[in-house]
Amino acid sequence: MTKQSVTKPAAEPQAAVAVIGQAAPSAPSTRARALSRADWLRARFRGVGTRERCGYGVWLFAGLVFGVPESWAGITSPPWPALSDTVGHLEQLWHPVRVIVVALIVFIVFNAVSYPPGQAGEFPAGEGEPKRARTPCGRVAGTGTGTASAVSVFAYFPLAVGVVAGGSIIAAIAGSDMFVLGYVIYGLIAIFLVIIPNALAFWFATAMPFPTLHRTVANLERRWRPAAVVVVAGLVVLTFHLVFFPWPDILFRA
After folding, report:
1. 200 near 208, Cβ under 8 Å?
2. Tens digit of each residue's pLDDT (9 = 90 or more) over 135-194
3. Are 207 and 148 in contact (CB under 8 A)?
4. What is the rounded CA–CA span in Å between residue 39 and residue 30?
5. Distance of CA 239 to CAs 175, 218, 224, 235, Å?
6. Which one, of 103, 105, 123, lies nearest residue 115 by Cα?
7. Would you kindly state where each structural domain of the chain is located, as residue ranges?
8. What does the alpha-carbon distance between residue 223 and residue 214 come to, in Å, rounded to a whole number?
9. Distance CA 11, CA 20 (A)
10. DSSP class of 146
11. Beta strands 206-207; 133-134: pairing state
12. pTM > 0.85: yes or no
């Protein structure tokens, strides 16, 4: 009995050591899987140039500005009005806005079909038709895009961010109506991300430091298709939400 009472407790630490030894290999395997995912993601986005990187950054920022109030609208009051609520408020003030929204969407789709965003350079034109081309950033321009001058990143981005932030702060302080803040935010973003870049490219052959949303989605699809599918699905839902506002609330109210 004495010998058993002395030797039996000594077996328990050995069993514990054996259990630890069996569990130890699982920790490196989990870390290895995490590292393999990170390596896979780095391999997908290896060789991203400055222009493509600027596109991801610009449109990710725009997506946050548009997406935060849209996602918060059903939970709590967002810090600024959602785009759909702003457009819906404008439609109540002036009913033709709904027609203008649909016309803009049709124009964007027609432009993307006529001049595919994934192509660059001149497009074939019939006799008597004006020649059109796409700049390296994906914007439609006249001829002569090969010698287009470029706008500096350090000049355009600080100016755009300063004007949008400054105008939004002034509208938030001076105006009591939240929709006025929405008009200022979305209006200035449209001016600096869409109107000015496309006008400079089309009439002045000036290249902007970031690609269009079309070209950015095309770049993302080439590197990671599921992510591009999610972005396109979100844009389709937002389009239906703007055209048939207040869809999908109509379905829940019914």
Report:
1. yes
2. 888 888 876 555 557 788 889 999 999 999 999 999 999 877 889 999 999 999 999 999
3. yes
4. 14
5. 28, 19, 23, 6
6. 123
7. 1-44, 50-253
8. 15
9. 14
10. G
11. unpaired
12. no
